Amino acid sequence: MKLRSSRFSALVTVAVCVLSGCASTPRGSVERRSTEVKVYEPEQLAQGQYELVRYLWVDSWRTAFWLPSASSEAMGIASLQAEAARLGANGLVNVSCRDQGHFMWSRSREPAILCYGNAIRVR
């Protein structure tokens, strides 16, 4: 009985996550705000100068199945900025971009760059 209960709660949690992902802000306002999200180097800010909004691309259950990649570092950082703006953050810190190479089953020969970082709200 306990196993069925945990499966049901996991299914409900996934359904809620999927449905809440559908509710979002208008695309134009996010694009406008994403240009205002500044990328900081770790040494530029002291610990008390900002609050963490979210770890981007590393704290979601989806990253176990899919990692968002871009064809360039600039596009990857722009994607981070858009996600940070959507979450209400005004900065990024600890941004790192890694070349993931090409997947064996992929026919594409474009680079796969994975960028991740911390969305923050600077006070």
Would you give an account of this structure?
A 4-stranded mixed β-sheet has the order 1-3-4-2, with helices on one face. The model is unreliable at 1-6 and 10-25 (pLDDT under 50). With 123 residues, the chain is an alpha+beta fold. It has helices at 2-22, 27-34, 73-86, and strands at 38-40, 50-56, 91-99, 113-122.
Low-confidence stretches: 1-6, 10-25
Report the C-alpha radius of gyration, rounded.
17 Å
What percentage of amino acids are in beta strands?
Answer: 15-25%
Mean pLDDT: 77
Instruction: Note the gap between the termini.
Output: 48 Å
Number of strands: 4
Topology:
Elements: H1 2-22, H2 27-34, E1 38-40, E2 50-56, H3 73-86, E3 91-99, E4 113-122
Parallel strand pairs: 1-3
Antiparallel strand pairs: 2-4, 3-4
In short:
This protein is α+β, with helices and mostly antiparallel strands. It has three helices and four strands; from the N terminus they run ααββαββ.
Characteristics of this structure?
single chain; 123 residues; alpha+beta; four-stranded mixed beta sheet; 3 helices; 35% helix; elongated; disordered N terminus
